[in-house]
Amino acid sequence: MPKETCAPAFGYAKGNQAVVKEDLRPRVKRFVTAHELYHLKDKSTWGGWLGKEVRANTVVGLRDPIGLLATIAASLNKERLKFYISRFRRSE
């Protein structure tokens, strides 16, 4: 999907569909795609939103640690950090 549609998010999973920004670097796009696909099959509820993110990042990160690191590096900018802080505050 075009970055304007979901920025600053890299992607999302909703219903039975996973969506990923088209302008991501290939390694980051592969990781984010696997992360969002994991969300589609994750039926656990512990930890709420944060638990879902921890599970997806852990499971996919164990399979693709370089992809996890590349995605973390791509997330280290002001816009993304504000996005994470905002989501974390809403989940409290």
Q: Helix proportion of residues, in percent?
A: 55-70%
Number of strands: 2
Count of DSSP helices?
A: 5
Topology pattern, helix = H, strand = E: HEEHHHH
pLDDT average, as an integer?
Answer: 90
Question: What would you report as the Rg, rounded to the nearest angstrom?
Answer: 13 Å
Strand content: 5-15%
The order of strands across the largest sheet is 1-2
What distance separates the N and C termini? 29 Å
Low-confidence parts:
none
Structural class: mainly alpha
Shape descriptor reads: globular
Q: Describe the oligomeric state of these chains in a short phrase.
A: single chain
Q: How many structural domains are formed by the residues?
A: 1
Largest sheet: 2 strands, antiparallel
Key features?
92 residues; mainly alpha; two-stranded antiparallel ribbon; 2 strands; 9% strand
Tell me the layout of helices and strands:
Layout: H1 3-6, E1 11-14, E2 17-20, H2 26-41, H3 48-63, H4 65-75, H5 78-91
Antiparallel strand pairs: 1-2
Helix pairs in contact: 2-3, 2-4, 3-4
Descriptive account of the structure:
- The mean pLDDT is 90.
- The chain has one domain.
- The protein starts with a helix and ends with a helix.
- By secondary structure, the chain is mainly α.
- Helix 3 crosses helix 4.
- Strands 1-2 form a two-stranded antiparallel sheet.
- The chain contains five helices and two strands, in the order H-E-E-H-H-H-H.
- The protein is globular and about 30 Å long.
